[in-house]
Amino acid sequence: MKVQVDSERCQGHTLCAMKAPEVFELDDVDGHSSVIDENVPAGLEQKVMGAVRSCPERAISVEGTA
Amino acid sequence: MSTQDAIGDEERKKIKYHFDRHAPDYRERFEDITHEMHAKCPIAWTDTHGGHWVAAGNREVFELAARSAEYLSNDHDVNNERRGYQGISIPAPARGKGRRGGFLEMDPPEQRYYRQTLNPYLSPAATSRWIPWIDELVRACIDDRIESGRIDFVEDLVNIVPAVFTLGMMGIPIKDWTVYCEPAHAAIYTPLDSPDIERVGQLHMQMGMELFKQFADIKENPRPGLINALINADINGQKAPDMEILGVLGLLIGGGFDTTTALSSHAIEWLSQNPAERERLSRERDTLLDSATEEFLRFYTPAVGDGRTISADCEIAGVRFKEGDRLWLSWAMANRDPAVFEEPDQVKMDREGNRHASFGLGIHRCIGSNVARTVFKRMILQVLDRMPDYVCDPEGTVHYDTISVINGMRYLPATFTPGSRLGPGLEETLDKLQKACDEQRLAEPVTIRKKRAELSA
Fold this sequence. Notes:
The structure holds two protein chains of two kinds. By secondary structure, chain A is of the alpha+beta class. Chain A contains two helices and four strands. Chain A has a single domain, classed as Alpha-Beta Plaits (2-Layer Sandwich), CATH 3.30.70. Chain A has helices spanning 15-19, 45-54, and strands at 2-5, 24-26, 33-35, 60-63. In chain A, strands 1-4 form a two-stranded antiparallel ribbon. A two-stranded antiparallel sheet of chain A has the order 2-3. Chain B is α+β, with helices and mostly antiparallel strands. Chain B has a single domain, classed as CATH 1.10.630.10. In chain B, 49% of the residues lie in helices and 9% in strands. Chain B is built from 19 helices and twelve strands. In chain B, the strands form four sheets. Chain B has a five-stranded mixed β-sheet. The relative contact order of chain B is 0.19. Classes of the chains: A alpha+beta, B alpha+beta. Chains A and B meet through α1 and α2 of A and α5, α6 and α16 of B.
C-alpha cells in the first residue's frame, strides 16, 4: 500500500498522526502532515485506512491494499 | 434589482427553511432541526437576520469550505474600503462594531501572514512543551477543592486553566486572569436584552483597556509570547497595524477561553451521566483518550458555526450563490450528518472515521486546536485520577440559554469523595508558574525553544 498527503488540502487537523504516528509526521512549525515513507509498512494498513477516513479535509489517498 | 433578477432570486432561494439559531428554543430543538434539514434541505435559504444561506449537510459544508479561496470570504470590511463584507457573525454583532476579529475576519494572503506568525507558538510540538506547566496548574485548581468534596467544574477548573494558559502564551501576567475571564465568557452568554448587559459591557471595556496596556508595555519592553510575535510580524513586508493586532488579541482570548470551557464542561457532565464509560475511559486512556476527545468535540461542537460572504457568483452543491450572499456554515449540524456518522446522536468514545468539523474546515482551521485538545486532555486525566466518583448536580447545572455562538456552560457543580492535597493552591502556584514562564522563556516559539517546561515538585 502507498499513501500520500495532499499538502494543498491538509490544514493541520492532526487526526492522521493520532491514528498512525508510525506513518504520518507533523511539522513542528505548523502541524501540517506529511508521510514519513509513502510505502506503508506491513501491518499498518488498517491504521492508515483509519487515518484516511478521519481526515476532515479528505487530504489522504492510498493506492493498493497491502 | 430588475424584475428578471427578482424572479431569478426567488428561484435560487426556493428551498427555504426558517432558521434562527439565536432563538432560545434552538438549543432544545437542535436535534430535530438538524434531522429535518439533513432530510429535506442540507442547504437552505432563511429570511432571518437579514436573510442568509444555511449549510447543514456534512458534504455541503465540506464542499463550500473547500472552495473558500475562490468563492467564500471571511473579510470584515469595517471601514468600507473593499466590498463592505460583514465578517463571520450573522447578524453582525452590535458590540465590537467597527472592529475586525483578527485573521478569522481576513482573507488570504493577509490572513496567511498572521497565521504564519502564530503557528510556531500553537503547533502540536509547541503546545506539548507546556504539558508539565499545564499539569501543575490543573493540580492546583483541583487541590483547592479536593478536601471539600465539592467543586463547580466550570468556575473552579475549566474556566481557569484555558484562561491562565492562554495568557501565559500571550505574554500577559497570569495572575491577571480574572480581569479577562468573566468578560470573555459573559460576552458570549449574556443576551443583548439582559439587564446585565451594561455591566458585561463595562467589564469588556476594562478588559480591552488592560489588554491595550499589556500590548503597549510589551512594545516598550519586549517579552516572549504571542503579543510580541504580532508586534514583530512581517505582514507582506510591513508591520501589522496596531488596530489589527488588537483584533487578533481579541480573537485569541475569544477563541481560547470559552470554547475549551464549553468542550470540557460538557464532556465532564456526560461522563458523570455515564459512569461505566467514565471508568472505561480511565482504564483504557492510552488507546481511548484521543478518540474520546474527538468524539466530544464532534458531539458538543463548542463553536457551532461560522458566517461567510459569497465573493463571486458560483454554483456549489446544486445551489446558485450570488456575490454578496451571506452564508452560515454549521459545523454543529455537519457533525450530526448520518451520511458520514453512524448513529450521529450517540456519543461513541471509540468512534472511527470521525472527520468532524469542530475546528472548522479549510484555511481557517482553528489555530488553537492543538492547545484546546491538550488543555482538555490534561484536565480530564486529573479529574479521572483524583475525583473518579464525582457526581454532577443537574439542579445546579446551567447551560447557556442559547447556542447561537458557543454551546457553553456557566455552572457545573458536583460532589465527590474528598481526597488529600498534593501541593499549594492556585494563588501560590500562579507565582511559581509565572516564574517558570519568565525564567525558562516558555512563551518563545518552538523555532527558538524546543525544550519542555520544567517544574520543580
